[in-house]
Amino acid sequence: MALIETHVAEGIGTLTLNYSIKRNTLSEAMIGEMSRALTNLQKDGIRVLILRAYPGAKVWSAGHNVQELPLGGHDPLGWKDPLRQIIREIECFPTPVIALIEGSVWGGACELVFACDLIVATADATFAATPAKLGVPYNASGLLTFMNAATPQIAKEMLFTGRPIAAARLERLGIVNHVLPKEEIESFVHALARDICHNSPLSIAVMKEQMRILNGAHSLSPADFERMQGLRRVVYNSNDYQEGIRAFKEKRKPLFRGE
């Protein structure tokens, strides 16, 4: 069974997550299909991409496939991690990407959504950034995605508590573009996509790439980079990290000791 579905009409591409039996977990297999689909959609000459789950989804995506994370001693979110790769591809995709959100968004899927250019959600949608619940040390590029989407205080609240935050609150904070009733969201998103299609694709592609570069234009000394990597190594070599992964697999609450 295909883990995603794609559709193209009138310059609008739609990529639909189709792994509901596993809550659209961002497994290596699913991300591989998404990456190949992005390549094909770009070849099709689309002018805007809609990223969504199936209509009526209770969980938009449960985020990173925790079963695929290393137990300990290895960086769980290195440069070649599939989640890191698909987020880079979304950020670098030459046409605008609209995230159409129904249901809850968990963990790494929050970053995937925040990497999109526009976010439109239903009123009951929620977003929960959960690495601290697993003892996972998020990497610098992932943190930057959150900090480019939200103020530092909101990014910290999401990452430190792991609590679900309602789409309506994120709309008030300027993180989500629009919140709509379920029965209106599809027509609204397609109208938004059509407006984009009527404008200059070259102008939009260039502005998107310029903003991507500017968002990442933060000076960082080699010493500071090494310090961040060293801090992350402390976490993924810790007993807490192993406990978080074991607890998830055993479907129990982890007991973190800070060691």
Give the topology, please.
Layout: E1 4-9, E2 12-17, H1 28-43, E3 48-53, E4 59-61, H2 82-92, E5 97-101, E6 104-106, H3 108-114, E7 118-122, E8 126-128, H4 131-134, H5 140-149, H6 152-161, E9 165-166, H7 167-172, E10 178-180, H8 182-197, H9 201-215, H10 222-236, H11 239-249
Parallel strand pairs: 2-3, 3-5, 4-6, 5-7, 6-8, 7-10
Antiparallel strand pairs: 1-2, 8-9
Helix pairs in contact: 1-2
Shape: globular
Number of beta strands: 10
- Strand line-up of the largest beta sheet: 1-2-3-5-7-10
Report the span from N to C terminus.
Answer: 42 Å
The major pleated sheet works out as: 6 strands, mixed
Rg from alpha-carbon coordinates:
18 Å
Mean pLDDT comes to 92
Helix content: 40-55%
Determine the number of helices (DSSP H or I, runs of at least 4 residues).
11
Unreliable stretches covering 5 or more consecutive residues? none
Order of helices and strands: EEHEEHEEHEEHHHEHEHHHH
Give the structural class: alpha/beta
Q: DSSP strand (E) fraction?
A: 15-25%
Could you describe the 3D structure shown?
This protein is 47% helix and 16% strand. It has 259 residues and is an alpha/beta fold. It has a 6-stranded mixed beta sheet with strand order 1-2-3-5-7-10, with helices on both faces. A 4-stranded mixed beta sheet has the order 4-6-8-9.
